[in-house]
Every structure is written in structure tokens, then in C-alpha cells.
UniProtKB/TrEMBL annotation:
Gene3D superfamilies: P-loop containing nucleotide triphosphate hydrolases. It comes from Leucosporidium creatinivorum. Residues 745-757 have a biased composition (Basic and acidic residues). The keyword Transport applies. This is ABC-2 type transporter-domain-containing protein.
Length: 1393
């Protein structure tokens, strides 16, 4: 088994006190030796300290209560109506049963001291730190006393940002640089008493922080994230730590703060904290899972040891080891003190001293033992002494005065340093920096605006001033609103996804979440103005609207005002929604309402009285009236010859004709635009500016809702705090109290380790020689690996090297030779070699057992003679569960940040188990940063398990570790050490007690002290913290005899391999890249997807409820419309509005698809399943529920809309809805495939979907479409064929009876009746005369059945089934497009070097 260690230049800090016996250091300086180097402002007061007595923290649930299980569809549907529960979550009301999380904790930390909290993961370390930092919103209640000097916890709540908690998650704005991130924090935390200019202050403190953390080179580098490329993971962690120091708090609780840092950097950071406490009096509380002896001895004054929620020690670090030895536990000779203390809380690790009896075993017994000990008496005495001194000192008053002096004049009692307006201004600048950093997103918006305006303007190009032309103009104006209704939907994901960062910054006292809203709106004004002016300038003149400056700028301002208001509306929805699925659901509900009641689909005169009031709360309704009033106030509509009634031969006298345009009068061929507008829509041109004012009023209301929602929901909540979630029906076995199998396992390791040379000689050997890897940076290639050589049984590298030799790199240039037994790598190499990646990425709604079974079923092949059966694969997964001690959580969901789930340590074990379940047989098993996030005992267990694999399965284990202890380091057989620049400084045997590698460096002047950790010594030798070595270690290695011996060993492996008979890795016949067949992959992926979606209740609930709401609302709002001209038009446009259920559902699916491919790209693409199988499984999973959703929409709307009830019409309408559901799935997947990022999905959606609508002939009739849309492009819109089939079927057979106001009036010559005069015209007309026997004021209805309306649009009743069939073809073609687009945009780039 091989370990790799690597300290790159980016991992080094600049200032430290460590000194090495050899070699010499250059530019070495002690911590904060220079004046002004302390990375804190010269203001504030920190000398308070901390005392806590009998602290007990309660969480939700009850002891021995039922397990928390997944929220399925039924529960999610019921929760939609759980208004009391919503109120409880909204106001963080706490009720119900509780259980203690930690019990009866006491301790004291005087000012200037540091406290270390030790315990196994899940024991309550983070809970204690939160309670001590007064961050208790996520708990039901906290009993006991916590005081800071003489300041109680209740009083300290007024100064929350002075007592802060740092979680182990690194949450930042990824597109801000490191300097900008710290600059924002420093700007918001600048004390009012600071006399320097803000820019000077920020620059000075940023420099101090980056220097203290050894990363000045990252000043202008993006912080980045798991998706956005930026600084390294270790550097991102240091950005989080530096950001915490900007708070200048009196007390900071650091939760697992050194996770992801190498041992040298971690030690330096803890020394920084110790020095800050000593110099300023601030109190630092730290929990660490892998603390070295030097960290313990030099960085901490006091320690608390936790055992399953109980305090088993609290006192000075110098007393802890002696206390536990006195209790009866034996400390192994080379075990570090923090490891020993933690081991005493683990039944599987601790050992009693010989001859000692009555040693307490359980947490309760050990807690009671401590309270009866002399150490507890000493603790009480120290507590009393501290409280007495605090009461007699004026520290509390000095602290309060310093806090007040640090606040700006108008900050008040908010807990923030800066006033609200200063917060807004700082956030405006920060958000402007993000916009400048990421011009692509804004460019996508502008491109979408330009394309929409250009294409739609061309489609609506200058229609005539006729009846149909007036409708086209109204349609163009309605489209302008519709476009921004859907376009602004993209605000929803951003609001929901930004919540974790807002929670963090609010807790740290940076800003009020409401300031983010105001800042965003301020920045939106110029951005939205640019977008809408570009959009307006193109669309306005292409459509041929009134060419006056006043009307153009009025049009622009209406569009701009609507866009701002709609964006605020969707942000309000997002701010009040707990997650993205719920936000999309209510966004879809809102979309259906505001489009239905806008007044275009169903004009105001036709709207039902009981429902028409709803339009008064719709922004698009006011915007549409203002746009129409602005345009038609100066228009005069002209009846063409064919629009006059009657017309044709013999009808030439206008005195006996009428105009079919609404509002026309007998004997006139023109209609005033304002009259047409008032008659048809009940809109008045005089209400333009009133409506604009109302729109801005709505913007104000939405802003208030955002501010209130942000204040109430952006916080940790006791009702939404995490924890394990189990599948329904789960049975959780109790955790083992002892490892009964340990002795057997050790014996088995020994037995397996004594394999004969003949046996091990048959194990394939992986070799790599002269490996190089470079990435493009700034137009040139940066070399990250340089000439690395090693043997599979003896070598590897850190994460970059591991990714490279394991064939997992998809970018950059790779060079070198990779061989298995001297032969090229087989095609199934990736599948048959386990690779444990650094990030623990899993399907969140799978259980631990299901994740292991999935890996076993799709990756295991056979033992050479036969394939494993399904039962054998599943049995092996159970063995892995037992091996990694995952039994108690086998039926627990992996989870995510929204719902809770496994701990970091449990995820790490699962990640390892997923690879073990694949039964790797490809000679090597790779694991990157194996023990990050684990405590020392868990890390030791993991490496012990890996060691067991080498013995039982003959695999070479290659892994990297950040902070190896001495005992851990000695478990490895070989080590590869890389210097900055990716150059080898050692690759060879570790030796007994690490003697071989220690001697190698000792012979070259770098002697290792007998008590030192060999791993830390080697790291400090090659790349010492605080300076540079004068020794060129890579050159020494290249010239060494050990390096030459490594080359000879590789040659011997190749020579030996060439003499072997062909083995499975060297067969000329290529092995399949995947163990399972394509349809087996589809089957298992589909099962996983179905399980995930049934457990994610809000996801299916959003789909079903959106379609039901669309159907019910549109159906009842247009309930049984009378068969008039307006009624037929309303029914037709109701069909169009019903189809708008597609965009929100497609948006949700597109974003979800992108996150699904993140899992595929990160971990599951290497030989587990084909990407085609993944897409197929998504289709098979999504289609049934989407078809059900649109079936429900059909049932909720068909009868209420009053369509023809014949069997054929009903069947075709249902089939049309079914195909719309089918298209929604394929369209959503296509959006996900072509969108570069999740944020781009809504912009591409609005572009494409609106084009589909305007080309459908429903808004612009076929006869009015200009070339080439008339002859070609409109036929490419899938909605043209959907609307053609549905409108033809639903409307054609309905008899039409015009309302009195819809009749076209004309007079007849004397002696004629209406019927006799118009008989020639009526013989060819589609309409009818309402009063054929009258002799004056004749009334003509322009159509007698809905077929006339359908024909006017360009559809045909006789072609309804053809149209449905063509729409089916579009759905099938879209499936092919999904696969093609996915390959081009997501798969092909993975394999391009």
C-alpha cells in the first residue's frame, strides 16, 4: 500500500515559527514579528473570556422516538395545506417533543486562552460550539448558563456578530476574487473609529490576512466552487478562515477548521489563533478531528472531551492525559494525546490498563466519574474565580463601549457595523464586480433579447391597419409582456440557491438580507434598462408601431417597469419558498394566473364577473392596457374591401356597407383606435400613466415581501435542521459496542499477507513512467506534473497525479507511459480499478445500501471463469457494509444540505465503500485525500481497512493524505513525495517505523528527531513553512541510487510480464468497457431515479400540482364561455395558456438534468454506465409522471372550458395533452443539454419557447406571417401542430352566436330587406345575418361556427389528426436532439485533450 504526500506552492503559508534541523531556511520570520502584521483591525475589545455551566442543548424529536423518514408524494401534497406548519417554520416557533443533544457541559476559558473540543464525529462537538457561540436558532432550547465575562447569553444576543460560529462548509460567491471577497467583508466590518480611507483600510487588512495565511498570490483569483474553477480546495478553506477573522469578534468557534489543509498549514493556522488570543485577548474555540501532538501542546490551553453528547472531561490540556490514565485507560507509546483522548470514547479503540477494574464504560458513567473527580472540583474553583474577576472588572463595559464605537452613526441596535444604506452600497459594488467578472451571463441575456426582438419583430412585421392587423399588433404587444414574464422566471433559482450564503453572512453580522434585495434592484436598474432599450428599439420599429419619440419612450418605460416588477415578483416567490421545487411550483401557479387574467386571451368585457377582480392584482394586465393605450390612441383602423359587409360584385356603395372592425359604424370604413380599444378590451388610453404608477406600486409591495421573507426565512431553523433520514420501513441495528471480529481480522490479514511468491506473482502490476500533465493558463501551458515514475505496488501521487495515472483527467495535456504488466491499459481499466475521489458526491436520495448495491450490480464482472450472479453481487455489497461498519446507517439516505443526511465521516466511508463494492480486480485501488474530514480513529480504521484489502485481494492501494499521524504513516508500505512543480523527491519503501524514508533524508542532512512525526518532518523538509529550502531535492532524487533502482524494477516488471502467457489484462481481444449490458444499466438507473423522485416529495408534487392548478384556474376563469366571437377567441387562447404549463416544468427538469450530469461527470462516467443509458433512464422516469400531470390538466379543463363533447374530440384533446407532457420532458432535457450553466437555462427557455408561440399561428395568423416565416419557419414550430390539432378539434364544431356588440351593422337601400340585399354576399360568406327580415340596421355575424375562426388562423378541422401526428414526430425528433446535444456539449468535451 502506497501513500503520496504533496505540498504545492499554493499550500504554503508565509509566516510560521517552526524551525527544522536541516536544511537552512531563507526569508524566515516568526509570526507577527513586524509591527502592524496582526490580521485584525486596531479597534475593538476582546478580553471577555467564556464560562459555561450545566449547558444542555435540546433538538427536535424524542429519545427512542420513531426514525425520521423520507417525505413522499402524499406527505408533500398534505404539506401544501399545512398552514400551521408553515407559520411555525416562518416564525421559527418551537413546539413538540424534544431530545437532549448534549447534556450538562461546564467549563471556563479565560480571556486570551484557546479551547480544544475533542470527540468522535456525531458526538456533539459542533452542537457545543454553536451553543457556546450563542448561535442557537437551530436548537429547540438551551438550558444552563453561558456568559462572556459578566455578559449573559441573553444580553450577548444584542451583539451577535461579536460571538460567531464558523461552520466547516466553504460558502462563498464563486465569481468574486479572493481580494474582493475579503474586501467586501472588511468594508462591512470597518469600525467607525477607523480614520483611514476605506480603500486604504481594506487594502491593508486584506494584505495582512493573505500574508498571515500564505496566499498573497491568490488576491485576484476567483474563489470558485465545486462547479466554478477557482482557487484550490485548501486555499478556499483558508479564504473562509480569513473571512471569519474580518469579523474581529471577541469569541470565534471554529468547527473542524483545518479540514482539507495539510498538516503544516493546519499547524500554522492554529498557531495564528493562539497568537491572536495571546495578543488581543480574544477567545478561540476549536474542534479538530485529527490533531497532532504539536498542535495539542503548542496551540491550546484547555480541552473538552465529548462522548456521545456527554462531557467526560473539561479542564487544562496538561491534565487530560493524566486524568484518563487514572480512570484506567492505557495510552500506547506512540499515540498522540488528542488521539488517546478521543480513543477513550470509542469502545472499539480504547484499552484498559492491566490490573485495573471498575473502569467506567458508558457515556453516562464516564460523565459521572468526571463530576466526582478532583479535576471537576478544580474546574469549579476556576469557574468561581473567573466569575468573581469578571464581576469586579470593567471588561464588559469596555467591550460594550468598543462595540458601540465601532458602529456607524445610523447602525442602531441592528447588530451590524454599518448602517443599512452603507450595506446596500457595498453590496451594489460587490454585485457589480460579479457582473464584470462574468460578462457571459449578461451577454446571454442581451443575445436573447436581441434574437427575440428581431425574430418576433420580423414575424409581426408591420401588419396592416385592418381588423386582423389590429389583432396582430395587440399580439405583438402581448408577446412583449409574455417574453419578460417567462424571462424573469430565471430569478427564482438564483434567489433560492443564494440562501446558504445569506444565512452565513447574516450570522456573521455582515449585512441584513434585505440589503441584498435593495442592492440587487439598484444594480438591476441600469442592467434592465440596457436590456429593455435594446429589446424595445428592435421590436418597436420592426412591428411598425407609432413612430413618435413620446410613444416609443413610453413603450420602453412600460416594458422596463414591467420587467422590474415581474423580477421582484419572482424573487418574492423564491424568498418565501423553502427549496427550488416549491419555488418553481408557485412560480408556475403565478404564471398561469397573470397570463390568464391579463386581458388578451379573454378580454375584460367577456370575463366572468366573479373572477374578473383577479386581473386587478396582475402586473401584465396593467402593462397590456398601458401598451395598447399608448399605441392605439393615435391609430386609425381601416377596413379593407374584404373587411366590409357586404362585399363583392354589386356592393360598392359605402353608405350601405359596414366595417367588421370592432367599434365600426354603418357607412364608415375607418375606426378610431381608441374606440376599438374601448369596445373590444374596455381599455382606455387615458389610464396609461395610472397603470405605470400601479406597476411601480406592485414593485414596492413585492420588495416588502422580499424583505419580510428574507428576514423570516434566511436563518437556521430548529424545524429544518439536518439529521439522518431513513427510508420508510427502515430497521436500524444498534451500533456494535466492540469489534468482535478484530482479532479474526488481524489474523486473516496475517494469513493473507503470507501469500507465497507464486501467488503474488500472478497479481498484475501497474507501472507509470515519466508522467507529465499540464493545463492551459494565460495562453500558455502550466506544468503540474513533471516526469513522475512509479510502480503500482509502489507509487502514486497527490490528487492531480492520482487523477492522471488513474485515467480520470479530462482537460489538459497528459504525457508518459502507463502499463499493466508491461502491456497497454485495457479498455475496461477505469471500471476494474477502484478510484475514491476527493469529493464525496452521491445520489442524495439513495440509501447507503442502495448506493453500494448500485455499484456492485453495474461494475462487478466475474472471477475469470464465470460471471457473478446478482445474488453474489448483492451479498458482496453486504460484506462491504459489514467491513466498513455501515450497518447502523445502511438504510439512511445520503441526503444533502436542504434535507439533512449523513455526516462527513459517514459520507467518506460510503465513498470508499462504493468503490470496494465494485470488487476491483484491475491491480490497483486509488483513493484521493482518504481521511479528510475523519477523526483520528476513523482515519486509522479506514487505512486499516485498506491494508486489509491489500492482504485479502492482492490490490495495490494508492492514496493521498493531508494530515497523517505517525502511526498512520507507518501503515503504508511505500511513499511518493512531490515537490512544488510536480517533481519527484522520493519514491520508494517506507520501511519499518518509516526508517527507510527517514534514513534517505537523514543521509542528506535532514535528520528526523526521534519524537517527531516522520510525515510532518518530510513535508517540512521538502517545502518548509515560512521559507524556502536551499537543497534541490528533486535533483538529489534523480541522481540517487534509489531512483535508478526504481527504473530497474520497472524494467524487471516489464521483462517478467513479457514472458507470461496471456492473462486477462493482456488479451488481444479487447474487454468490454462496461460490466453490465446497456439494458441492465437502464434498468438499475431507472430504479434509482424512481426511488429518488418518490422520496423527493416536493418534486413530483410540483409537477402534478402545477398542471392541476393550470387546468382548474384556466378552466374556471374561462368557465363555459358563451359561443360568441369573443367566447370562441377566449377558448382558443385558453388552449394557448394551458400549454404554458410546459415552461416552468421544463425549467425545473433542465436544471435537475444539469445536476444529474455533475454526478455522472464527477464519478460515474468511468466504466459504470453509458451516458446514453442515463438519458434513457431519465426519460423512462420522467415520462409517466409528466403524462399523468397533463392528463390531470385535461380532466381539470376540458369540460369547464365548454369544448365539443364528442368522443373523437375528447380523445384527440387528451392525446394532445399527452403529447404535450411528452414534449415537456424532451424539451426540458434538451434545455439542460444545450445550456452552459444552470443559470442560463431560463434565458434559453424564454428565447426558444416564445419563438415557438409566435410562430404557432395562434398570435399571428398564417395569412399575416411575412416571408420566410409564412413559407418555412412557422412550420418548424412544434406548437403550430399542437395548437392546430387542439384548436381545430375543440372549436370547429361549436356553433357561434354573435353578441349584440359583435354584430357588424349596415343599412340597406329603400325597398330592400337585409336578407334580400345581402343574399349574393351570404351565398359565399362564412357568417350569417341576425335579422334578415329587417329593413335597416342589419346585423351580420362574421362566422357561424368555430370552423371559421380556425380557418382564419390557418388551421383546418380536416387536418387535425395529421397535425397531431406531426407533433408526435416533433416529440420523437426532440429525443434524438437530446442525445445529440448531450454528446456535443457534455460528453465530447470530457474526452478532448
Amino acid at each position: 500500500m502506497t501513500v503520496s504526500s504533496h505540498t504545492s506552492a499554493s499550500d504554503l503559508t508565509a509566516l510560521d515559527e517552526s524551525a527544522q534541523p536541516a536544511p537552512k531556511l531563507k526569508n524566515f520570520k516568526p509570526i507577527f514579528a513586524e509591527p502592524g502584521s496582526i490580521p485584525l483591525p486596531d479597534h475593538g475589545y476582546h478580553e471577555l473570556g467564556l464560562v459555561f455551566e450545566d449547558v444542555t442543548v435540546f433538538g427536535a424529536g424524542k429519545v427512542g422516538g420513531s426514525l425520521r423518514t423520507v417525505e413522499g408524494l402524499v406527505v408533500a401534497l398534505l404539506k401544501m395545506w399545512d398552514f400551521p406548519g408553515f407559520i411555525k417554520r416562518l416564525f421559527n416557533l418551537k413546539s413538540g417533543s424534544t431530545r437532549p443533544l448534549i447534556s450538562n457541559f461546564s467549563g471556563v476559558v479565560p480571556a486570551g486562552e484557546t479551547l480544544l473540543v475533542l470527540g468522535r464525529p456525531g458526538s456533539g462537538c459542533s452542537t457545543l460550539l454553536r451553543a457556546l457561540a450563542n448561535t442557537t436558532d437551530s436548537f429547540f432550547k438551551v438550558d444552563g448558563n453561558v456568559s462572556y465575562g459578566s455578559i449573559s447569553s441573553k444580553e450577548a444576543s444584542k451583539h451577535k456578530s461579536e460571538f460567531v460560529f464558523n461552520s466547516e462548509d466553504d460558502t462563498h460567491t464563486p465569481l468574486l476574487s479572493v481580494g474582493e471577497t475579503l474586501g467586501l467583508a472588511l468594508t462591512l466590518k470597518q469600525p467607525a473609529a477607523e480614520l483611514r480611507k476605506r480603500s486604504d483600510y481594506v487594502q491593508d487588512l486584506t494584505g495582512r490576512l493573505l500574508t498571515a495565511f500564505g496566499m498573497p498570490h491568490t488576491l485576484n483569483t476567483w474563489v470558485g466552487s465545486e462547479v466554478v474553477r477557482g482557487v484550490s480546495g485548501g486555499e478556499r478553506k483558508r479564504v473562509s478562515l480569513a473571512e471569519m477573522l474580518t469579523t474581529n469578534a471577541a469569541l470565534i468557534a471554529w468547527d473542524n477548521c483545518v479540514r482539507g489543509l495539510d498538516s503544516a498549514v493546519a499547524l500554522h493556522f492554529l498557531k495564528v489563533l493562539k497568537e491572536l488570543s495571546r495578543s488581543t485577548g480574544m477567545t478561540n474555540l476549536v474542534t479538530i478531528y485529527q490533531a497532532s501532538q504539536e498542535m495539542y501542546d503548542s496551540c491550546f490551553d484547555r480541552v473538552v472531551v465529548i462522548y456521545d453528547g456527554f462531557m467526560v472531561f473539561s479542564g487544562r490540556t496538561t491534565d487530560a492525559e493524566e486524568y484518563f490514565v487514572e480512570m484506567g485507560w492505557e495510552k500506547p507509546a506512540r499515540q498522540t494525546t488528542p488521539d488517546f483522548l478521543t480513543a477513550c470514547t470509542s469502545p472499539s479503540e480504547r484499552r484498559m490498563r492491566e490490573g485495573v477494574t471498575n473502569v467506567p464504560q458508558t457515556p453516562q458513567e464516564m460523565a459521572a466519574y468526571f463530576r466526582s473527580s478532583r479535576y471537576y472540583v478544580a474546574l469549579q474553583e476556576e469557574t468561581l474565580r473567573y466569575k468573581t474577576e469578571a464581576a469586579s472588572s470593567n471588561n464588559a463595559e469596555q467591550f460594550k463601549r468598543a462595540v458601540e464605537a465601532s458602529k456607524s452613526r445610523f447602525a442602531g441596535n441592528s447588530g451590524f457595523k454599518r448602517d443599512f444604506f452603507a450595506q446596500c452600497w457595498a453590496l451594489v459594488r460587490s454585485k457589480a464586480q460579479v457582473e464584470r467578472t462574468d460578462p457571459r451571463t449578461f451577454a446571454i441575456r442581451i443575445i436573447s433579447n436581441v434574437l427575440q426582438a428581431t425574430l418576433v419583430g420580423a414575424i409581426f412585421y408591420k401588419p396592416p391597419n385592418t381588423a386582423s392587423g389590429a389583432f396582430a399588433v395587440a399580439g405583438a404587444l402581448f408577446f412583449a409582456i409574455l417574453y419578460f414574464v417567462i424571462f424573469s422566471f430565471g430569478e427564482v433559482p438564483g434567489v433560492v440557491n443564494s440562501r446558504p450564503l445569506l444565512i452565513k453572512h447574516r450570522t456573521l453580522g455582515f449585512y441584513n438580507p434585505g440589503a441584498v434585495t435593495i442592492a440587487q434592484m439598484i444594480l438591476d436598474v441600469p442592467l434592465y434598462a440596457v436590456q429593455t432599450i435594446v429589446f424595445s428599439a428592435i421590436l418597436y420599429f420592426l412591428v411598425g408601431l407609432s413612430p413618435t419619440a413620446q410613444q416609443f419612450f413610453t413603450f420602453f418605460f412600460i416594458i422596463f417597469s414591467s420587467y422590474v416588477s415581474l423580477a421582484a415578483m419572482y424573487r418574492a416567490i423564491g424568498s418565501w419558498s423553502p427549496n427550488l421545487s416549491v419555488a418553481v411550483r408557485y412560480g408556475g401557479f403565478t404564471l398561469s394566473v397573470i397570463l390568464t387574467v391579463a386581458g388578451f386571451a379573454l378580454p375584460v368585457p367577456v370575463q366572468l364577473g366573479w373572477a374578473s377582480w383577479i386581473r386587478r392584482i396582475s402586473v401584465p394586465a396593467y402593462a397590456l392596457e398601458a401598451l395598447l393605450g399608448n399605441e392605439f390612441r393615435t391609430r386609425a383602423l381601416q377596413c379593407s374591401a374584404t373587411d366590409l359587409v357586404p362585399n363583392g360584385p354589386g356592393y360598392t356603395d359605402l353608405a350601405y356597407q359596414g366595417c367588421t372592425i370592432t367599434g365600426g359604424i354603418p357607412g364608415s370604413s375607418t375606426v378610431d383606435g381608441s374606440l376599438w380599444l374601448l369596445t373590444k378590451y374596455s381599455y382606455a388610453s387615458s389610464r396609461i400613466w395610472r397603470n405605470i404608477g400601479i406597476i411601480w406600486g406592485f414593485t414596492g409591495v413585492f420588495t416588502i415581501l422580499i424583505l419580510v421573507g428574507s428576514s423570516l426565512l434566511i436563518r437556521d431553523s430548529a424545524l429544518t435542521s439536518g439529521g439522518k433520514i431513513y427510508k420508510r420501513g427502515a430497521q436500524v441495528p444498534p451500533p456494535p459496542s466492540v469489534k468482535a471480529q478484530d482479532a479474526l481480522d488481524v489474523q486473516k490479514e496475517k494469513t493473507q499477507g503470507e501469500k507465497s511468491t507464486a501467488e503474488t506473482s500472478n497479481i498484475p502490476t501497474f507501472t507509470f513512467r515519466n508522467v507529465t500533465y499540464s493545463v492551459p493558463v494565460g495562453g500558455s501551458d502550466k506544468l503540474l506534473l513533471n516526469g513522475i515514475t512509479g510502480i503500482g505496488r509502489r507509487g502514486a501521487g497527490k490528487t492531480t497525479l492520482l487523477d492522471t495515472v488513474a485515467q480520470r483527467k479530462t482537460t489538459g495535456k497528459i504525457g508518459g507511459e502507463f502499463l499493466v504488466d508491461g502491456a497497454p491499459l485495457p479498455s475496461d481499466f477505469s471500471r476494474r480499478t477502484g478510484f475514491v475521489q476527493q469529493g464525496d458526491i452521491h445520489e442524495p436520495f439513495s440509501t447507503v445500501r442502495e448506493a453500494l448495491q448500485f455499484s456492485a450490480l453495474l461494475r462487478q464482472t466475474g472471477n475469470g471463469s464465470r460471471d457473478y450472479t446478482r445474488e453474489e453481487k448483492l451479498a458482496y455489497a453486504e460484506e462491504v457494509i459489514e467491513l466498513l461498519e455501515l450497518g447502523p446507517i445502511a438504510d439512511a439516505l445520503v441526503g444533502n444540505a436542504e434535507v439533512g443526511g449523513l455526516s462527513i465521516e459517514e459520507r467518506k466511508r460510503l465513498t470508499l465503500g462504493v468503490e470496494l463494492a465494485a470488487r476491483p480486480d484491475g491491480s490497483s485501488f486509488w483513493t484521493s485525500v482518504t481521511t479528510s474530514g475523519l477523526d483520528s480513529q476513523a482515519a486509522y480504521d479506514i487505512i486499516r481497512f485498506l491494508k486489509k484489502i491489500t492482504a485479502t485481494q492482492g490490490l495495490a492501494i494508492l492514496c493521498t493524505i493531508h494530515q497523517p499521524s505517525g502511526d498512520l504513516f507507518e501503515l503504508f508500505d511505500d511513499v511518493v513525495l512531490l515537490a512544488p512543480g510536480g517533481r519527484t523527491v522520493y519514491a520508494g519503501s517506507t520501511g519499518p517505523s518509516a526508517a527507510t524514508v527517514v534514513n534517505y533524508f537523514g543521509e542528506r542532512g535532514a535528520l528526523c528527531p526521534p519524537t517527531a512525526n516522520p510525515a510532518e518532518h518530510i513535508l517540512a523538509t521538502v517545502a518548509p513553512v515560512g521559507g524556502q529550502t536551499e537543497v534541490d531535492w528533486p535533483s538529489l532524487w534523480n541522481e540517487s541510487g534509489e531512483a535508478r533502482e526504481m527504473e530497474r524494477e520497472i524494467e524487471r516488471v516489464s521483462m517478467r510480464s513479457s514472458g507470461k502467457e496471456a492473462i486477462k489484462h493482456g488479451e488481444p481481444t479487447p474487454s468490454p468497457a462496461f460490466a453490465a449490458s446497456f439494458w441492465e444499466q437502464v434498468k438499475e438507473l431507472t430504479k434509482r431515479n424512481v426511488r429518488a423522485q418518490t422520496r423527493d416529495g416536493p418534486y413530483w408534487t410540483s409537477k402534478l400540482s402545477t398542471c392541476v392548478f393550470f387546468g382548474l384556474f384556466v378552466g374556471f376563469y374561462n368557465y363555459q364561455l358563451a359561443p360568441t366571437l369573443a367566447g370562441i377567441s377566449g377558448k382558443a387562447l385558453a388552449i394557448l395558456v394551458l400549454a404554458q404549463a410546459c415552461p416552468p416544468l421544463a425549467l425545473d427538469l433542465g436544471i435537475r438534468m444539469q445536476f444529474t450530469f455533475i454526478l455522472y461527470s464527477a464519478r460515474e462516467r468511468a466504466g459504470i454506465y453509458r451516458w446514453q443509458a442515463l438519458l434513457t433512464s431519465i426519460l423512462l422516469t420522467e415520462l409517466p409522471v409528466m403524462l399523468l400531470a397533463f392528463t390531470l390538466e385535461f380532466f381539470c379543463s376540458f369540460w369547464t372550458l365548454g369544448f365539443d363533447l364528442s368522443a373523437e374530440v375528447g380523445a384527440l384533446t387528451w392525446l394532445g395533452n399527452i403529447l404535450l407532457g411528452f414534449f415537456t420532458v424532451t424539451f426540458g432535457l434538451l434545455l439542460g443539454a444545450v445550456s452552459p450553466t444552470p443559470t442560463a437555462v431560463p434565458f434559453i427557455l424564454s428565447l426558444v419557447w416564445n419563438l415557438f408561440n409566435v410562430l404557432s399561428w395562434a398570435l399571428v395568423t398564417y395569412s399575416l406571417l411575412p416571408s420566410p416565416f409564412h413559407y418555412f419557419f412557422s412550420w418548424l414550430s412544434p406548437l403550430r401542430w399542437l395548437y392546430g390539432s387542439l384548436m381545430s378539434a375543440d372549436l370547429s364544431l361549436i356553433p357561434v352566436t354573435c353578441a349584440e356588440s359583435e354584430l357588424t351593422r349596415f343599412n340597406v337601400p329603400a325597398g330592400e330587406t337585409c336578407g334580400s340585399y345581402a343574399s349574393a354576399f351570404l351565398s359565399t360568406a362564412a357568417g350569417y345575418l341576425a335579422n334578415p327580415d329587417d329593413t335597416s340596421n342589419c346585423g351580420y355575424c362574421t362566422m357561424s361556427t368555430g370552423a371559421g375562426y380556425v380557418a382564419n388562423m390557418g388551421y383546418s378541422f380536416d387536418q387535425k389528426w395529421r397535425d397531431w401526428g406531426i407533433f408526435l414526430i416533433f416529440c420523437v425528433v426532440t429525443i434524438g436532439s437530446v442525445f445529440l446535444a448531450t454528446y456535443i456539449t457534455r460528453i465530447r468535451p470530457l474526452y478532448k485533450n
